[in-house]
Amino acid sequence: MNDFDDSVLRDQLQRLGGHGPDEAGAYLALQQRVGVAKRRRAAAVVGGLGVTLMIGFAAAAYQPPSSSRLVPANGGGNDAVVTLPTTVDNADTTSSSTVISTPTINGNGNGNGNGNGNTNSDNANNPGNSNPSTSAPQTGTDSTTPSPIDVPATTAHTVPHGHATTSAPATTTAPTVPATTTPPTVPATTSTVPSTSSSVPTNFIEDASASSTGGTATVHLQNGVLSLVSYSAYAGHGCVVDPPSNRIRITCRPTLFNTLGNTSHLDFSIGLDGHLVAVSTET
Amino acid sequence: MMNDIRMVDDLESLFRAHHGRLVRALTVACGNEQIAADAVQVAFVKAHLKWRSIMSYDDPVGWIRRVAINNMRDEHRRESRKQRVVDRLGAEPEAQAQAPQLDEVAAMLAGLPRQQRLSLALFYVDGLSVAETAATLGISEGAVKFHLHQGRSTLRGQLGEGVHHE
Fold this sequence. Notes:
The complex is a heterodimer. The longest helix of chain A has 39 residues, at 23-61. Chain A is built from 3 helices and 15 strands. In chain A, a hairpin with a 5-residue loop joins strand 14 (264-270) and strand 15. In chain A, the strands form 5 sheets. Chain A has a 5-stranded antiparallel β-sheet, with no helix packed on it. Chain A has helices spanning 7-16, 23-61, 121-125; strands at residues 81-83, 86-88, 99-101, 104-106, 154-158, 165-169, 189-192, 200-201, 205-211, 215-222, 225-233, 237-242, 247-254, 264-270, 276-282. Chain A is α+β, with helices and mostly antiparallel strands. In chain B, helix 1 packs antiparallel against helix 2, helix 2 packs across helix 4 (60-89) and helix 7 (130-137) packs across helix 8 (141-159). Chain B has 2 domains: 1-93, no CATH class; 97-166, Arc Repressor Mutant, subunit A (Orthogonal Bundle), CATH 1.10.10. Chain B has helices at 2-30, 33-49, 51-54, 60-89, 100-110, 114-125, 130-137, 141-159, 161-164. The longest helix of chain B has 30 residues, at 60-89.
């Protein structure tokens, strides 16, 4: 320190530095600049949060197109086995027992549907058992006398695939429109009556209405019987009821200009699960 | 809340104790009081925004001093670029009004290397020791002594007897 102590040079340099700024004014200016800097920082933080939230919402709302692809229930393939447990609530019997039947559609005939008609004696001995593997006793030899409420009359339907069989328990009322399977193709517009229970009764009562470009129709399902309640055509259209064996079809055509407009069809049928299925198509 | 008030009080007392000296020292180092004042004020603003961490440093004033010197260097670079543009355009440089004697000293200081100017300013104007000057500039004490010796010899040689008999 002493080696470089030079009072003359120190005075010269200090005079060159001037008197210095006003401390009070400088501190006031400092406070103002600090306020500005804090506001800028807060604005940057708020802006960053806003951008982050916007990006988050956008990412959450974005659905890739591939996510809406329809996938078959069993992963696709023609040999899919669809097993639907069906609960028969026989209202005509005095017993409150429930028979669980499993109509099985086996695409290749190798499924677990017991399509040979063998009787499962365990279920016959235990009427209250709700084992879904129960099938209709037809040719069994070791079966015991079935319960009065277990009416095992079998109605075998051939599924359009040609290999599958359906074992469905008969109810006390013979259905005029038997249950059948719907084609696996997805129609243009499909409305299905919603179901809230896991076990589907076969004698439930349902009403379903559907509309197309030509008119509307309402059908009623009770005990497996499908009946047309009402139908009406829109202005300029005429509707014709065409009841095939297993469904009700209402065909609506434009009446004013036959060459213009589309012909629409309303098809009501009973699905695999026993519910009403309404399909509206246009040709 | 009380801690915030105490922190602000600490910063304010620090500001009042060191702001003027630091501005004068940087004015000597860069030759422009406005640039020096702005550089010091920006350094205190940065210190205010992060005072919670800076106050735990061993030498908060040293941190502020280093930040101010860096700000002054950045501003000096900007001014140099601007001056080069002005020179290319052929405009007259701004004249600085100072006393003749101080103008002479300032001109001689301007001819010194930057490290020598900073060493002289921090040592003679800000009143730092050799060790503190070395710590502020990030160089060794021997280097600071060298810069002080070279700078003082240059100023004495150019000012001649006028400096000694002032």
